[in-house]
Amino acid sequence: MRHLQICHLNFIQRGTMVTELSIVRLIAPNPSPLTGPGTNTFVAGDTTGCIVIDPGSADPNHLAAILNTATQMGNVQGIIITHAHLDHMGGAKELMITTGAPVLAGDKGPQGVPFAAEVVYDEDTITVGNHEFMILATPGHRFDHICLWHSLSGTLFAGDLIAEQGSIVINPDEGDMRDYIQSLERLQKLSIRNLWPSHGNLISNPHVSIAKYIEHREDRERKILLTLANSGVPRTIGQILPIVYADTDPSLHQLASQSLMAHLLKLENEGRVTRKSDESEENLWYMS
Ligand SMILES: [Zn+2]
Predict the structure, then answer these.
(1) What is the rounded CA–CA span in Å between residue 98 and residue 122?
(2) Three-state secondary structure call for residue 154
(3) What distance in Å separates the CA atoms of residue 288 and residue 273, rounded to the nearest whole number?
(4) Strands 194-196 and 3-4
(5) Which of helix, strand or coil describes residue 3?
(6) Cα–chain-centroid distance for residue 161?
């Protein structure tokens, strides 16, 4: 475990007294079917410094609101990106230039946050003012996904591991369904009291929600296996999708096909389904 004290200058040891953690949520002006009301930007810290989690947008008013909040908390000491999706890392470069604070992310390669100052790893800790945050590597939605855990208050900043509403898209080009479920299972071991997703409101009953997310994936998996078992002949994704995602709005089927592919790849890895290509090179899936 490494300890990243991102601003030693402002670190004030106050004996046994721990100042309360302030969390300010600012919603980035990027609403969409995927981002809900917009990405949650969090400014978290005390009067001696703060971190900004997922600036989300370079909109000048949004950046001004972040800076205004941060100023009241002793300025930005670090900018944390939960994963390299534009609706999370947007505005980070601008904020970095304005504040001089380093950007920390799970990956800074071409597929990650290229302008990140440093890559953070599982169980790294970040001290800001009197507060310590732990990085939890939680791949699945994306390979570089991290959560931030403040154990003292039982607060988890969950990024896109969980949302207040709907489910998380797993695109197998950059994510992995098995990793995703394992990351959710890891959260079950924490004593989470406050679960902040990147999209939507505070999740009021964290452990019930996490269990539901896991059940939802297991349910989809059961439906996929049942569909293939009932069909008796190999099926394409286009044939499986309307059956397994019959409860999903057809306008979301394109996105759902990514998660379906992620499920099939997981099942293939486990030896439970097999694929072959037909003449048109389309994958056909069947029970192993
Ligand atoms: Zn995302």
Answers:
(1) 28
(2) coil
(3) 5
(4) unpaired
(5) strand
(6) 4
Per-residue pLDDT at 15 exceeds 80: no
Helices (H) and strands (E) in the chain, counts: 7, 14
Distance 16 CA to ligand 1 centre (A): 38
* pLDDT-based confidence at residue 35 (cuts at 50, 70, 90): confident
197 within 8 A of 164, measured Cβ to Cβ: yes
CA of 150 to the centre of ligand 1 (A): 21
DSSP secondary structure letters along 238-256: HHHHHHHTTTS-GGGHHHH
Q: Mean pLDDT in the chain?
A: 91
Name the token pair of 5. 């004290």
104 vs 119: CA distance, rounded Å: 6
* Separation of CA 168 and ligand 1 centre (Å): 8
Separation of alpha carbons 46 and 75, rounded Å: 10
Integer distance in angstroms from the first to the last C-alpha of the chain?
41
pLDDT one-digit tens code per residue, 198-218:
999 999 899 999 999 999 999
Q: Give Cβ neighbours of residue 245 (< 8 Å, ≥ 6 apart).
A: 253, 256, 260
Helix (H) or strand (E) segment spanning residue 186: helix 177-187
Give residue 258 CA to ligand 1 midpoint distance, Å.
13
- The pLDDT of residue 4 is 56
Pairing label, strands 118-119, 103-105: parallel
